[in-house]
Backbone:
């Protein structure tokens, strides 16, 4: 996302996850709903792919944060 945060416990991670989910749904979720209502099958497919990519990006951000500074073999 746009800035770095420090997660010290499960509660902090939960708050981060809620905020990220709200951002993803408000952006890509809205576009998917709009495409389903007004668009073609290709529009729905593209919006669904964008939603999936946003989720993937968020998960990769977490992974990168967990592995940052870890020794790579």
Residues:
């Amino acid at each position: 996302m746009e800035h770095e945060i420090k997660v010290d416990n499960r509660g902090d991670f939960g708050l981060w996850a809620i905020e990220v989910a709200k951002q993803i749904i408000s952006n890509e979720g809205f576009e998917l709903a709009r495409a389903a209502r007004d668009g073609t099958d290709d529009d729905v497919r593209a919006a669904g792919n964008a939603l999936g990519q946003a989720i993937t990006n968020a998960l990769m951000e977490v992974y990168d944060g967990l592995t940052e500074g870890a020794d790579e073999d």
